[in-house]
Amino acid sequence: MMHRSDNEAALQRQYYGETANEYDDAHVTERDEHYFALSFMTSVLDDLGVRSILDIGSGTGRAVLHLKQKRPDVHVVGVEPVDGLREVGYRRGLSETELVPGDVMGLQYPAGAFDLVCSFGVLHHVRHPDVAIAEMLRVAKTTIFISDCNNFGQGSFITRSTKQSLNSLRLWRCAVFLKTRGRGYTLSGGDGLAYSYSVYSNYAQVQKACDRIHVLNTGGDGRNPYRAASHVALLGIKPT
């Protein structure tokens, strides 16, 4: 029997399978929030002593290719569940050992297998991001890096204030349930199946495993990223 989350994952994979050849044109630019986050992550690898990286939900391999070019001394593996996206990555020059099949909900690696585990624009496609992050934290020896949406920083000032108020009153999930008519997700031609997500929703989970956390504003402006940034990146460093 297929569970609800399994059916939703199948819909998402179908979408990316059907649009794989157009994926890079539709989703990847060198000026987007994830490229900015990736550049930042690359710049701190030496400070963190990172020599191996696992990239979750790699798509066609943008992060893997970037890291291969900028840091060929670092061992990098990308995990991507959609066959069509991996095939595009292989045509771009990645090998089958550099871009492998797999699912963040159950990574086939032992604890601490990679120094750093990262994801770029993946968690807003996952119904249970806490499970995904738990897997990322398990496999990460020292560091976790997440670049994704901050739904509470998206929209006009009034929209953001309303979202933040509902969240503080613990009513945000009810609001999403009503807005999506019980589905909990939206479907669009530009992003497939997506959930209303904020990296801040999993901040406490990462904080329990890490003694240092840094948040980077990657989209929007304002002094408080939670309140005004549409996208953020989170760097969590485990105790040594």
Report what the structure shows.
By secondary structure, this protein is an alpha/beta fold. The chain has helices spanning 4-18, 23-27, 33-43, 45-48, 62-70, 83-91, 129-139, 157-168, 172-179, 203-209, 225-228; strands at residues 52-56, 75-79, 99-100, 114-120, 140-149, 186-188, 192-194, 212-220, 229-237. The longest helix has 15 residues, at 4-18. The radius of gyration is 17 Å and the shape is globular. The model has no long low-confidence stretch (mean pLDDT 92).
The CATH topology is: Rossmann fold
Low-confidence stretches: none
CATH architecture type: 3-Layer(aba) Sandwich
Helix content: 25-40%
Please summarize the sheet with the most strands: 7 strands, mixed
Give average pLDDT, whole number: 92
Q: In terms of structural class, how would the helical and strand content be classed?
A: alpha/beta
Number of strands: 9
The CATH superfamily bears the name Vaccinia Virus protein VP39
Residue fraction in strands: 15-25%
Describe the structure concisely for a colleague:
This protein is of the alpha/beta class and 240 residues long. It has a single domain, classed as Vaccinia Virus protein VP39 (Rossmann fold, 3-Layer(aba) Sandwich), CATH 3.40.50.150.
